[in-house]
Structure formats: structure tokens, C-alpha cells
């Protein structure tokens, strides 16, 4: 309604109002002035003064609202090699030369270079005028970030929404932004899978634990999965029945394509990893059937390559070792590593021409399956393995033994991984529900931090690319997201050089010990060979002594027989002469 609208009307005669008041301006006038009388003050009683506050107004209450905080982070860029497309590997000389030739043939290349020459020259001269890299606080000591006590706090918990709980067998972070998490759910206990057990796996938003963002519906339960680092919309999963399944999240929950059953693995696929390639469509998988298969997701009808893990190099799958873990480092595209059920780590060469040349060497690592295998992101020559009750750190130069190892734990270790931001830190999970954080620069015998994540066994582990968030998967389908303290996620001063020196020192020590062991073995071998030769000589000397006695006896008896014959002949001659004389 109009605010000026009149709702009530009052009517009254002018005469009923009384005499009209007329006001005018005039000077001030004092009418009464009452002076104080001190004598009257004797009749008053003084009271103790009291303060009293009165609040005339509306009753209000205070409310607090916690809004989403915006966390700002200072970032820097270390530009080493740039300007290349994502499908070009700057380390590959042939690719870079081919790309340069292609760009230089472009008509707009020369005009673009000439157009950019003037502003580039201007800014170059401007940079040369002032030293922008001058350090004004050279003499001041840096404050170490590691003074803070290492800690980890639980941020969110993601639970399997089904009634029949399954193990979180594998985890994978979304490559862009790390705000999403893919989890594979399966029952790894043989012949305990229920007919009513759900086969779905899920993609979670880490800020919304109430329900999954997307449901993945495979034909068989997923044992492992991995996001494509070049395309954040695609995932590849390994199933319990041995098949490989490929998803594009833009197309929904159903898989885009699944490998043919007769061309797939015969056992569950325990690990699958994307490979560094131009197309970004290559991957390889491992299974306990003793095979490593290479795939191209554009054609999943059959694998592009096969490798049977037969150490006799005959390709006999009945004698092959079952694979449970894989490792591939994009900076070393020709090498890969496989962890087996028998505790061996197999180092392979993908570029080898024949099957026998693909298996390069083996490392005797553990007494049980090698559940985790990962190279150090800062020093790829060194890698981490987990099996039975111990964690070991290896060097590719030492085949006989590891260069470092933890003490044996009271509970079995199931997974481990390096920190992507600190070369000396790695994480392990155990079957007693404990997450251990190790810092080998701080101490090697005990973990720096141990966190009781849950009461059930932990089976899987994955760290975010920035090293801050870590997620653990349990046997009862619970994925727990933890936030690491800044001391565990900040690279310390001289940490790389210290870790490199530690690895080199331990490698050198193991080489000395290995050489000493070889020397001892050679001495024992030569000593045993010498003892055998002495025994042979003794046997020969014993045989020669017997032969000499036998020969002497033969010669003696032959001489005696000769004397007897000579004596007989002489006696016969004498008898003949005597008869003639007579």
C-alpha cells in the first residue's frame, strides 16, 4: 500500500480546541531566583551513593557464524623447461627436435618472433638495470619450520554406504585440484564374497562426506584404480575377475569399455598404472597370474604387450611369480619394477626386444608379498618396499641387500608411500589401524609420528600431491582423510643434500660389506677346493705306496726264482761232470 494513504479520519470543530496558542520571539526574563539556605542542610540525611545501570532498549543475543575461510598460499615458479605442449617430453631429444622443425615451418612463426622482439628487449634492459635477485637478508639465520611438533588431525571420514562393508583396496587422487578422491571397494578374502555384496566403487568430494559424488558400476568388484594424469575425466580400473575397465566421468557411472575376458588376467588385478606417452592412453597392469600386460584404452579388446614373470626366462606361466605391486617413474620411461607374492622385486626394461631381455635383475626383499613398491620422487635410484613386518629402502646398485630398513613391527605392514614434498619422509599403514610417519633424517629406528586412525586393519594409503592431505583405507570400508602438520609438508633447509649424502653413504657401506662377503665366500671356496686337493694327493700317495710294495715284492720273488733256477742249473752241470769223470 501507499505509505501516504490515510486509514483513519478524525473530525472536530475548531471551537472545541480552545484558545489558539500564538508563539513569538522575545528576550530572556528571570522570574524567580531561590538562593540556597545552609541551615536547611542540617535536616537532610546523607546516604551511601550506589551506582545502578539501566538499559532501555531491545534484548539482543550474540550469534557466531563460521564461514568458509579462504586460505592464501604464496607460490613460486621454478621455470626449467617450458613452452612445450603436454604431449611433448622435454627430456626426449627426438620429440623436441621434431616439434621445433614443425613450429619453424609455420608461416606465423617469423612474424610472431619479430612482433615480440621489441617488448622482450625492453624488459630485458629493464631487468639488467636492477638486480631483482639481490638478497638483502643474507646474514640472518633462517627459522626452521621443523621446530613444530609433528602432528596429524582427522578432517573427514568417508564410509561405504552399503550394508555389507567391503575393504578400501585402492585410492587415487584427482589430478587437478586434488578436491576429489576415487576409492575402489572389494572383498579380498577368498571365497568369503557374499552374493548380496555390492560391486560399486565411488568418487568422493573431500568436503562432502555425506555421500559420493559419482558411483562407478563395474561388472566385477574393483581391486585397483588410477586417475589419468593427463586427462582428469578418465579412470582405469582393475577388476577382481581380471578385466580392465575404463571410465569417462563425463559419461556417467557406466564404463566406456571393458577388456575381453579371454584376453585379460586370470586372477584379480592388484595394480594398474598409467604410462608416460604422447597420446596419454597407455597403461600397464599386474596380477597374481604371473603376467604384466600393457594396454591402450583406445583398444581394450587385447593387450598390446605381455610379459610372463618366469625367472627361467622360458615364458612358462605355470612357473611364473605372482605380481601384487607395480612401479613406474615417468622420468625413467624405459624402466619398471614389479613386486611379487614370493617377496622378490623384479626390475624390468620395457624397451627390450625379447621377453628374456625384459627381466633385468631381481632383489630378494621380503618373506611375504611385496605390498608396496615406490621410487623416491627426488632420488629415483632409490626405492621403498613394504612386505611382512618391515620396510626397506633399496639402491639399484646393490642387489644383495637393502641399504636401510626399519625394525620389525608387531603388526603386518600393508602399504607405504613417499612424501611428494620431503625426500626423507615416508608413510606406512599397519593391520592394527596405526599410521606411522617416518623421517629418516630425524631417526631411523622409530617413527616420528604414530596415529591410531581406527580400530580395524588399514589396507591402503595415498598422499596428495602437495603432501598436506593423506587418506587411509580400512578393512571395513572407511576412508579417513588426515591433515599433516606444516613440519611434515615443508621442505627443510639442506634436506635434499643431507638425504642424498645419507643414501650414498649407506650404498657405499653396503658395497663394502658385499665385497667383504664375496671375499669370504671366495676364501671358503678356495679353502674347500684346497682341502679336496689335499685329500686327493693323500689318496694318490697311499695308492703309490701300495704299488711300490707290490712291485718290490714282485721283483724280490722274481730274483729269488732266478737264483733258484741258476742254482738248479749249476747242480745239474756238476752232476753231469761227475758222471763223465766216473
TrEMBL record:
SUPFAM superfamilies in the record: WD40 repeat-like
A GO cellular component entry from the record: outer dynein arm
Domain of life assignment: Eukaryota
Localization: Cytoplasm, Cytoskeleton, Cilium axoneme
Chief localization: cytoplasm
InterPro entries registered for this protein in UniProt: Dynein_IC, WD40/YVTN_repeat-like_dom_sf, WD40_repeat_dom_sf, WD40_rpt
Regions annotated as coiled coil: none
Region of interest called Disordered, as start-end residue ranges on this chain: 523-545
MF GO annotations: dynein heavy chain binding; dynein light chain binding
Key words, A-Z: Cell projection, Cilium, Cytoplasm, Cytoskeleton, Dynein, Microtubule, Motor protein, Repeat, WD repeat
Transmembrane segment boundaries: none
Record has Ligase as a keyword: no
Family to which the UniProt record says this protein belongs: Belongs to the dynein intermediate chain family.
Protein name: Dynein, axonemal, intermediate chain 2b
Source species: Takifugu rubripes (Japanese pufferfish)
Gene field: dnai2b
Amino acid at each position: 500500500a501507499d505509505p501516504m494513504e490515510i486509514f483513519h479520519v478524525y473530525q472536530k470543530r475548531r471551537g472545541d480546541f480552545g484558545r489558539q496558542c500564538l508563539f513569538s520571539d522575545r528576550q530572556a526574563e528571570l522570574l524567580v531566583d531561590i538562593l540556597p539556605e545552609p541551615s536547611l542542610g542540617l535536616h537532610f540525611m546523607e546516604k551511601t551513593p550506589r551506582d545502578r545501570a539501566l538499559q532501555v532498549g531491545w534484548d539482543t543475543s550474540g550469534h557466531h557464524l563460521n564461514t568458509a575461510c579462504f586460505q592464501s598460499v604464496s607460490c613460486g615458479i621454478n621455470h626449467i623447461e617450458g613452452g612445450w605442449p603436454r604431449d611433448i617430453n622435454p627430456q626426449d631429444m627426438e620429440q623436441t627436435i621434431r616439434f621445433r622443425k614443425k613450429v619453424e615451418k609455420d608461416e606465423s612463426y617469423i612474424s610472431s618472433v619479430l612482433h615480440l622482439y621489441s617488448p622482450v628487449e625492453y624488459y630485458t634492459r629493464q631487468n639488467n638495470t636492477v638486480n631483482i635477485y639481490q638478497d638483502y637478508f643474507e646474514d640472518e639465520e633462517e627459522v626452521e619450520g621443523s621446530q613444530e611438533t609433528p602432528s596429524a588431525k582427522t578432517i573427514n571420514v568417508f564410509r561405504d554406504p552399503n550394508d555389507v562393508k567391503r575393504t578400501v583396496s585402492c585410492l587415487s587422487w584427482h589430478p587437478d585440484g586434488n578436491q576429489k578422491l576415487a576409492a575402489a571397494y572389494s572383498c579380498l578374502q577368498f571365497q568369503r564374497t557374499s552374493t548380496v555384496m555390492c560391486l560399486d566403487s565411488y568418487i568422493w568430494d573431500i568436503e562432502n562426506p555425506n555421500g559420493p559424488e559419482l558411483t562407478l558400476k563395474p561388472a566385477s568388484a574393483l581391486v585397483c584404480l588410477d586417475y589419468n594424469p593427463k586427462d582428469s575425466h578418465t579412470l582405469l580400473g582393475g577388476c577382481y575377475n581380471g578385466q580392465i575397465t575404463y571410465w569417462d566421468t563425463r559419461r556417467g557411472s557406466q564404463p566406456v569399455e571393458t577388456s575381453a575376458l579371454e584376453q585379460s588376467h586370470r586372477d584379480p588385478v592388484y595394480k594398474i598404472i598409467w604410462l608416460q606417452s604422447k597420446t596419454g592412453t597407455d597403461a600397464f597392469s599386474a596380477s597374481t597370474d604371473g603376467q604384466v600386460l600393457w594396454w591402450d584404452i583406445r583398444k581394450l579388446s587385447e593387450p598390446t604387450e605381455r610379459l610372463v614373470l618366469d625367472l627361467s626366462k622360458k615364458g612358462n606361466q605355470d612357473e611364473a611369480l605372482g605380481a601384487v605391486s607395480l612401479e613406474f617413474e615417468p622420468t625413467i620411461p624405459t624402466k619398471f619394477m614389479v613386486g611379487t607374492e614370493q617377496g622378490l622385486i623384479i626390475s624390468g626394461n620395457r624397451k627390450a626386444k625379447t621377453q628374456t631381455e625384459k627381466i633385468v635383475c631381481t632383489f630378494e626383499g621380503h618373506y611375504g608379498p611385496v605390498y608396496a613398491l615406490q621410487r623416491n620422487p627426488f632420488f629415483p635410484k632409490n626405492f621403498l618396499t613394504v612386505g611382512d613386518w618391515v620396510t626397506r629402502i633399496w639402491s639399484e646398485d646393490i642387489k644383495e641387500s637393502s641399504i636401510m630398513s626399519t625394525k620389525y613391527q608387531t603388526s603386518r605392514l600393508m602399504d607405504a608411500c613417499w612424501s611428494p614434498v620431503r625426500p626423507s619422509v615416508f608413510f606406512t599403514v599397519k593391520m592394527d589401524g596405526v599410521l606411522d610417519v617416518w623421517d629418516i633424517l630425524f631417526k631411523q629406528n622409530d617413527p616420528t609420528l604414530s596415529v591410531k586412525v581406527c580400530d580395524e586393519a588399514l589396507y591402503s594409503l595415498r598422499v596428495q600431491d602437495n603432501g598436506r592431505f593423506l587418506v587411509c583405507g580400512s578393512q571395513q570400508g572407511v576412508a579417513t582423510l588426515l591433515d599433516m602438520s606444516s613440519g611434515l609438508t615443508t621442505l627443510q633447509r639442506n634436506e635434499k643434500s643431507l638425504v642424498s649424502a645419507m643414501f650414498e653413504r649407506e650404498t657405499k657401506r653396503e658395497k663394502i660389506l658385499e665385497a667383504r662377503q664375496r671375499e669370504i665366500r671366495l676364501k671358503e671356496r678356495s679353502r674347500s677346493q684346497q682341502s679336496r686337493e689335499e685329500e686327493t694327493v693323500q689318496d694318490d700317495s697311499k695308492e703309490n705306496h701300495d704299488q711300490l710294495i707290490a712291485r718290490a715284492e714282485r721283483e724280490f720273488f722274481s730274483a729269488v726264482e732266478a737264483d733258484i733256477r741258476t742254482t738248479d742249473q749249476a747242480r745239474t752241470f756238476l752232476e753231469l761232470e761227475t758222471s763223465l769223470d766216473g
